[in-house]
Amino acid sequence: MGLDVTSRPPGRPAQDERRPDPALRTADFEYELPEELIAQRPADRRDASRLLVVRRSDGSVDDRTFPDLLELIPPGDVLVLNDTRVFPARLVGQKPTGARAEILLLQPREDDRHWEAIVRPGGKLKPGRRVIIGDGLEIAIEDSLPGGGRLVCLECEGDPWAAIERHGRVPLPPYIRREDDAEDRSRYQTVYAARAGSIAAPTAGLHFTGKLLEELEARGVTLVRITLHVGIGTFRPVDAERLEEHELHAERFHVEPQAASRLNSARSVGASVWAVGSTVCRTLEASADPDGQVREGGGWTDLFIHPPYRFRVVDRLLTNFHLPRSSLLMLVSAFAGHRLTMQAYRHAIEERYRFYSYGDAMLVI
What we know:
Elements: E1 50-54, E2 61-65, H1 69-72, E3 78-82, E4 84-86, E5 90-94, E6 100-108, E7 114-120, E8 130-134, E9 137-144, E10 150-156, H2 160-167, H3 182-187, E11 195-198, H4 210-218, E12 222-228, E13 251-255, H5 257-268, E14 273-276, H6 278-287, E15 297-301, E16 316-320, H7 327-336, H8 338-350, E17 361-364
């Protein structure tokens, strides 16, 4: 379970002393978005995206471009990246009858051959059925799981991960209304992706180039990498009317000893921690002890960050624009304040920012 982080850590000032938002309901996180603002493809260059800078101190918003991060992040501060790698989790094949079938792999069980998965068509692919993916790979449906999922077995010779890489397709979000292509193999992936395990990209990191990261380091910004593997919960809206009634799907995370040490050392001298995306934010907050010290190690977290919330570790948040009624939008609102967040979204819509995974970015400082 996620940690209780509603109290302010000793010696660490509150990040927002303004009057808190009143009790919020899920309906308060609804907004209207013109469909044409949903980015269907990435920008020509990773760092060509726009950057909406939101300042909590005075509620102002500023239209910038992503490379402006070079002047916004002071030397000595820490930029934290999620180095998870999206794997080609979508397996498209056919039943023995020839009918089309799809398997979306979620996470492995006790070995790399048994996986929790979502199947389509769900009503037809019951335990005992099989799906032929391609030469040398078949899927056996072994059991039903709570919530409509399935336990499946990958039947292949050799390494199952090699078979997934060979036959799998990029699991693009449902709001990208096209089939994946060769470009998505590289662009729906951060340049620093290293550890396979996500079915969705940590999208705030998609804007970085290797050159931009090198320039940040050359200016004295410390880069720290942690890992959180993004699961199916990132696409699911919050259905409960009251925020506290919603439960997130747990996701795996890991913080290396060196990463924890560098974060704690930087914070001890007053450096600010910049979280690149909601996944980094959740990982750091789930890893923190009551005094805000980041602990090494890992496990599973279902920490649901929503207003009201006192952050222990994160001082600045870089993020993309998120779906209405989503837990990600609620996390941003906990950090920036609900009213300021929704004001920023209205501004982004008026100024024709590109939204969601392949869209533009927002920085809350």
